Amino acid sequence: MKVKNIVWFNEIGKEDINIVGGKGANLGEMTSSGIPVPYGFVVTARAYQDFIGSQGVERKIRDYLKNLDHKNPKNLESTARLIQKTILQAIMPDLLAKEIMHAYLDLYQKAFKSKNVISKLNTAVKQPFVAIRSSATAEDLPGASFAGQQDTYLNVRGEVNVVKKVQEAWASLFTPRAIFYRAEQKFDHLKVSLAAVVQLMVNSDTSGVMFTLDPVNNDKNTIIIESIYGLGELIVQGTVTPDTYLVDKKTLEIKSKNISLQTIYLTKHHDQNKEIKLTRDKGSKQKISDQIIIKLAKLGQTLEKHYYYPQDVEWAVENGQIYIVQTRPITTIKDKTTTDKNEKEASVKDLSSMKLLLKGDPASPGIKSGPVIILKSAKEIGKVKTGDVLVTEQTNPDFVPAMKRAVAIVTERGGRTSHAAIVSRELGIPAIVGTTNATKTLKNGMVVTVNGIKGEVYQGAYTPAASAIVQSVYGTNKTAHLKTATKIYVNLATPNRVAEVSKMNADGIGLLRAEFMIADIGTHP
Fold first, then answer.
1. Nearest 5°: phi and psi at 219?
2. I need a surface site. Which of 30, 62, 115, 195 has the fewest CB within 10 A?
3. What is the pLDDT of residue 523?
4. Alpha helices in 55-116, H assignment, sequence order
5. The pLDDT of residue 143
């Protein structure tokens, strides 16, 4: 397609990531496929590139990045601040600003004509409430989610405010957490562009996240749905612990429900987003009906079938109508091996004699021990040393540098689809979420063992007495090598795991994922 500054959802599809970013491409793809998506348009990556090029911003960004030491928190913070200030102080070209304003003022009329958008949304026809959502050209990739790296703005109204928030979204491409994540993933900062999605706002009665497989144990026959009252920001951030429903993917039977107490919800109050307290009676009830659960599961089936890959789906419900506001591939699927069973059996046997301190929701598998370090906010991430067990109320993308040093994560809030859970699975470290009073029960310096398989925290260090097979596969017993008649090869999904995989007692690599290698380069071949 010819690259423009503004494109509408029905004009784009999944092949247009380099034009509208991962989020924009998937919203366009779903719109064309008849999935109920709130309508909108995208300010393309080209508009961003023209903006930073014509204003001399790119040259300044390049100069600031020359002195970047992303592992030095103070250097990272100051570099990010300088770059963001430069972007925000630059003047958006009049022509582009007018294009954005006109598209916004035409949005409701175009949405009304769109075949799959319900006209109940946003009755203020001329100036509807919209969400401004960042959509980077390197995000929602199979090997790197870039979860929460750029900013989202909810309940924005008025053409001047929309233009302002688009520019703020561009600046959010250079938050400290976004710079750090790209540096760790070896993406060139100036080869990643940002498109801005402008989408009709769903003032959610309930919202949540759906995984079309269980991300903790890779069970492909289970759909996991998590739900809360109000807007979905609180579930992604892990601010509240959601309800969790497990649905059999084949029969659509609800296998289990875990109802959590929700004390606050986020909603539109006049023209602002406001956190409102919930009564204990309402907060302790099931957040969505069984009927909605089944409808969501059916949509999950449809999306997985369409993309040929398990999906991480964000959804919202307003006045009984389900809307899908994002889908992307699940980034943390790992190959299952026979050691899964052995590790689980070993964990039951070897931990049975240890004192159980806490129980929560398993979010990322594995068993690790280390001293506790309790963080009250992301400002304290410098306290975490390599080998610590990070304990906090909840994590957000600003915690990632500390999470990379930790051997395990324990949070008081959040579910299996929260930031802490997703990033821990990406990092391959055990994590437990929704452990009430973890910051009060555990003490700094206390040595604990985190069992991410069962969602349990034990007092003391774990000394595995695993079988020789487990030791051989993981390379912990250097002298043992299990000889087999058939050579055993491994799948190397992502190149950044080559050092870890090389320590395994396998006979070689049988499969390399070329698309992941290309994604890591960040440039189309």
1. -70, 110
2. 115
3. 66
4. 57-65, 73-89, 94-113
5. 47
How many angstroms separate the CA atoms of 307 and 330, rounded?
A: 11
Which of 387, 391, 400 lies closest to 145, judged by CA? 400
- Which tokens sit at 374? 């309790």
Place of tokens 């995989």: 501
Backbone angles phi, psi at 367, to 5 degrees: -130, 120
Question: Is 420:414 a contact under the CB 8 Å cutoff?
Answer: yes
Of 70, 189, 270, 419, the catalytic one is 419
Q: Which amino acid is at 319?
A: N
Polymer length of the chain:
525
Tell which residue, 259, 255, 275, has the closest CA to residue 267. Answer: 275
Structure tokens of 488? 């055993």
Both tokens assigned to 60: 């300044």
Query: Locate tokens 């990739």: which residue?
Result: 141
Give the span between the Cα atoms of 158 and 446, in whole angstroms.
53
Question: Is 189 annotated as catalytic?
Answer: no
The DSSP bridge partners found for residue 225 are 210, 245
Place of tokens 């109802």: 259
Cα angle 327-329-334, degrees, rounded to a multiple of 5: 150
Could you report the per-residue pLDDT of 133-145, keeping only the tens digit for each? 988 875 444 444 4
CA–CA distance, 213 with 294 (Å, rounded to integer)? 15
Stretches in the chain below the pLDDT threshold 50: 119, 123, 139-147, 336-339, 341-342, 345-346, 466-479
